[in-house]
From TrEMBL:
<keyword id="KW-0472">Membrane</keyword>
<keyword id="KW-1003">Cell membrane</keyword>
<feature type="transmembrane region" description="Helical">
    <location>
        <begin position="373"/>
        <end position="395"/>
    </location>
</feature>
<feature type="transmembrane region" description="Helical">
    <location>
        <begin position="456"/>
        <end position="477"/>
    </location>
</feature>
<feature type="transmembrane region" description="Helical">
    <location>
        <begin position="407"/>
        <end position="424"/>
    </location>
</feature>
<dbReference type="InterPro" id="IPR011851">
    <property type="entry name" value="Na/Pro_symporter"/>
</dbReference>
<comment type="similarity">
    <text>Belongs to the sodium:solute symporter (SSF) (TC 2.A.21) family.</text>
</comment>
<protein>
    <recommendedName>
        <fullName>Sodium/proline symporter</fullName>
    </recommendedName>
</protein>
<keyword id="KW-0029">Amino-acid transport</keyword>
<feature type="transmembrane region" description="Helical">
    <location>
        <begin position="6"/>
        <end position="24"/>
    </location>
</feature>
<feature type="transmembrane region" description="Helical">
    <location>
        <begin position="274"/>
        <end position="295"/>
    </location>
</feature>
<dbReference type="GO" id="GO:0005886">
    <property type="term" value="C:plasma membrane"/>
</dbReference>
<feature type="transmembrane region" description="Helical">
    <location>
        <begin position="123"/>
        <end position="142"/>
    </location>
</feature>
<feature type="transmembrane region" description="Helical">
    <location>
        <begin position="191"/>
        <end position="208"/>
    </location>
</feature>
<feature type="transmembrane region" description="Helical">
    <location>
        <begin position="162"/>
        <end position="184"/>
    </location>
</feature>
<dbReference type="GO" id="GO:0015824">
    <property type="term" value="P:proline transport"/>
</dbReference>
<dbReference type="GO" id="GO:0005298">
    <property type="term" value="F:proline:sodium symporter activity"/>
</dbReference>
């Protein structure tokens, strides 16, 4: 690792810690400030924070690598994710922001479910919080592993050094500043990511003599690289597009909508967020695609190595950052990968700790906890979750990583239909909500782990579909909701309609 790269990465990490210190001074009032920023997030911070929390290292390594090896046919997942993110802003964001405040100021998704349905059994909160606690602890662990592997493969450092460095910085700024620190660091990280993914493909095109010349070289290597349908089937295309369904059920993304200051800011946040996503996802695809032309022209030996290995191909962004720029600039660009990893870890870490604090500790252990006690418990929860995730990361097991690989589908199927119907359908009942959540999550696990002949179908499709139907059927078969719940639902619609005028 070049000394200039070390300096650039070091400066990036120092900046993250400084943001944590700044946020600490702004977030010491109570757990509401710590866990949801007091609902004072602006449109730009909300948009970039949601985007950065969503996109992990997959954006700068997995997607460019897939584009390098397969060409445009790898773009379907990006199309599905962008469409899902847009619909999430349109259908969920404004309603969730209003409803979580109307429903007795719910600051976590499990509390919202309980308050929305007036669930006195507390089963909705308990089941949803357990799902979040278990899956996000594993998810956080996988993010830490990604950080360690990044330092190991990209920078030539020891895995454990990279793991500790990544974990220490993320935990420090999350522990100090809570949601505000996570959101502000996400904003900075999102900015670094979009700049890097615009600059790198632009410089490649300049080196190649223009867009037309670049595409001519790509087509000369393999004309199928520019065919959107090459090697695909209807099932594979639908399965890749279905990734977009996962957005409706991701707690670490939904909490950003709950924290925005004004409902009138949501359209602006949507424009910024979707614009950011188009540039970053599009840039990541172009890095992989244009990398084909660059290697074919200037470095055939590396091209042969990348062609033979998926793991090598996923480092195409790192390779281009190093060969096209001064090492210091390249280090700044490569910090975009670390930014993608860290932003996801911190968001998942905070959501998991909020579930421990608001949904479990306050509900079952200390119902009369003071604001100071809740704030202290929030910070302790961050440390507890981080320690468990770190221990799992020391010796990562395939079973854990495989489970985390399906967490997107699990959350999407368990929470997605419930979030949509709870916001759009007044007739949804508590028993329908609980049944749908359990069915959606269970179907995903069965689809993944029980042998069958339909593995080509992405598990979120049956999980989301059956969860959605279960909520409707059980709700229609159970007692209608109370007049009070109907009035709250109508109140949310009135506020939304007034805010959209």
């Amino acid at each position: 690792m070049n000394i200039y790269e070390v300096i650039a990465i070091g400066l990036y990490m120092v900046l993250m810690v400084l943001i944590g210190i700044y946020s600490y001074k702004k977030s010491t009032g109570n757990s509401d400030d710590f866990l949801i920023g007091g609902r004072k997030m602006g449109a730009a911070v909300t948009a970039l924070s949601a985007g950065a929390a969503d996109m992990s290292g997959w954006l700068l390594m997995g997607l460019p690598g897939a584009m390098y090896l397969s060409g445009l046919s790898s773009a379907w997942i990006a199309i599905g994710l962008t469409a899902g993110a847009f619909l999430n802003y349109v259908l969920v964001a404004p309603r969730l922001r209003i409803y979580t405040e109307v429903a007795r100021n719910a600051i976590t998704l499990p509390v919202f479910f309980e308050n929305r349905f007036h669930d006195r059994t507390q089963l909705l909160k308990l089941v949803s919080s357990i799902l979040i606690l278990v899956f996000f602890t594993l998810y956080t662990s996988a993010g830490m592993v990604s950080g360690g592997r990044l330092f190991e493969s990209a920078f030539g450092m020891d895995y454990y050094t990279g793991l500790f460095s990544t974990t220490f910085v993320v935990v420090l700024y999350t522990f100090l500043g809570g949601f505000l620190a996570v959101s502000l660091t996400d904003f900075v990280q999102g900015t670094i990511m979009v700049v890097a993914l615009i600059v790198v493909p632009a410089v490649v095109v300049f080196q190649m003599g223009g867009v037309e010349a670049t595409f001519d070289i790509i087509e000369a290597k393999n004309s199928n690289y520019l065919d959107l349908l090459q090697g695909t089937t209807l099932v594979s295309v639908v399965s890749l597009l279905a990734w977009g369904l996962g957005y409706f059920g991701q707690p670490h993304i939904l909490v950003r909508f709950m924290a925005i200051e004004h409902i009138s800011d949501i359209p602006k946040a949507r424009r910024i967020g979707i614009g950011w996503m188009i540039f970053t996802v599009g840039g990541a695809m172009l890095v992989g695609l244009f990398g084909i032309a660059y290697l074919r022209t200037f470095d055939v030996d590396t091209m042969n190595r990348f062609d033979a290995s998926k793991e090598a191909a996923e480092t195409i962004f790192i390779y281009l950052s190093r060969v096209l720029f001064h090492p210091f600039i390249g280090g700044i660009l490569m910090s975009a990968i670390l930014a993608a990893v860290m932003s996801t870890i911190s968001s998942q870490l905070l959501v998991t700790s909020s579930s421990m604090t608001e949904d479990i500790y306050k509900t079952f252990f200390n119902k009369k906890a003071t604001p100071r006690n809740m704030l202290l418990m929030s910070r302790l929860s961050v440390l507890i979750v981080a320690v468990v995730a770190f221990c799992l990361s020391l010796n990562p097991q395939d079973s854990i990583l495989n489970l985390v690989g399906n967490a997107w589908a699990g959350f999407g199927a368990a929470f997605g239909p419930l979030v949509i119907l709870s916001l759009l359908w007044k007739r949804t009942t508590a028993w329908g909500a609980l049944s749908g959540m359990l069915v959606g999550g269970t179907i995903v696990l069965l689809w993944v782990y029980v042998p069958h002949g339909y593995k080509a179908v992405y598990e979120i499709i049956p999980g989301f579909g059956l969860g959605f139907l279960t909520i409707i059927i059980v709700s229609l078969c159970t007692r209608p909701v109370s007049p009070e719940i109907c009035r709250e639902f109508d109140r949310v619609q009135e506020i939304r309609n007034a805010g959209s005028r």
